[in-house]
Each structure stands twice: as structure tokens, then as C-alpha cells.
Amino acid sequence: MPFVITDPCIGTKDTACVDVCPVDCIHPRKDEPEFETAPMLFIHPDECIDCGACVPACPVAAIYDSVDTTPASQKALVNANAVYRAGDAGAVAEAVSIVESHVESHADLMAIDPKDRQAAH
Ligand code: SF4
Ligand code: SF4
User: Fold this and answer.
1) What is the pLDDT, as a whole number, of residue 1?
2) Residue 83 neighbours by CB distance under 10 Å
3) 62 in ligand 1 pocket by Cβ < 6 Å?
4) What's the pLDDT at 92?
5) CA of 81 to the centre of ligand 1 (A)
6) What is the mean pLDDT of each run of 10 residues along the chain (121 residues)?
7) pLDDT at residue 61, rounded to an integer
8) What is the pLDDT of residue 70?
9) Cβ of 83 below 6 Å from ligand 2
């Protein structure tokens, strides 16, 4: 089961997870062109080796350790993580669209500071 990034990353996006991931499966990195406009980062589910290093690195507890443990309020973002592919404009647009829909439908969560958002999941 891959790890999953959820909505506390929106508005944080500090890339601490990227720095510790041993297999470079978290995108976009700061040196990728999509970074500036991406609303959050995504874990490639086929490349993640479930090492867990990213979880304690995240300052806002955005990362869950499996699809099963990802709360219901975040399920759409499981799909965003699954479809995002660095360098694939169509896949990037699809993932961003999923995130935008999540933001629109979860105004309650988005109103919470990112560091406190996970507690409201
Ligand atoms: S669990 Fe490990 S391999 Fe998977 S995204 Fe986190 S740091 Fe990378
Ligand atoms: S460490 Fe957390 S907030 Fe920072 S980019 Fe990674 S998932 Fe997003």
C-alpha cells in the first residue's frame, strides 16, 4: 500500500518529504517546472517503497501510511496522488483538477491553518 499526501500540504508544500524519500517518488520537486503552480505534492503509488521516512519529516502531518488509513474526507486526494506523473501535462492537469475540486468541496478544512488541518480529518 503506498503512502498518500493529503490536504495539509496545500499551502505548505515545503518539500521536506522530498528531501528524505530514498526513491525520489514525491513530485513535483522544486527543480521541476510544475512546482510553482502545483497546489500540493504527490506520491507515485507504484514507486513508493513504504519506508515511512516522509511521515515524520512532514511538519503538518499530511502523509498517511496507506490508502486504507486515509480518512474519508481525503479519499479524492488518493486519486490525485495516483494520477500525477511528473512531466506528463495531461496527468498533471488531472491531478490538479482533483485537488481543486477537493478544495471547493471542503471549505471547512481549507479554512483551518495547515498545521491544524490534519486533526480535523
Ligand atoms: S514512504 Fe518512503 S518511499 Fe514512500 S513516499 Fe515516503 S519516503 Fe518515499
Ligand atoms: S513535507 Fe508535508 S507539507 Fe511538506 S511537501 Fe511534503 S507532504 Fe507537503
Assistant:
1) 67
2) 18
3) no
4) 97
5) 13
6) 94 98 98 97 97 98 97 98 96 98 98 98 98
7) 98
8) 98
9) no
Q: Does ligand 2 come within 6 angstroms of the Cβ of 27?
A: no
Residue 25, C-alpha cell as written in the block = 517518488
Q: Which pLDDT score, from 0 to 100, does residue 57 have?
A: 98
**pLDDT for 109:** 98
Shortest CA distance to 7 belongs to which of 102, 89, 108? 102
The amino acid that residue 16 corresponds to is A
Cβ of 25 less than 6 Å from ligand 1: yes
Q: For residue 55, count other CB atoms closer than 10 A to its CB.
A: 15
- For residue 112, the tally of other CB atoms under 10 A from its CB is 15
Q: Residue 83 C-alpha to ligand 2 middle, in angstroms?
A: 18
| Grid coordinates belonging to 17 | 518529504
Indicate if ligand 2 lies below 6 Å from the C-beta of 20: no
Nearest CA to ligand 2 atom 3: 9
Distance 54 CA to ligand 1 centre (A): 6
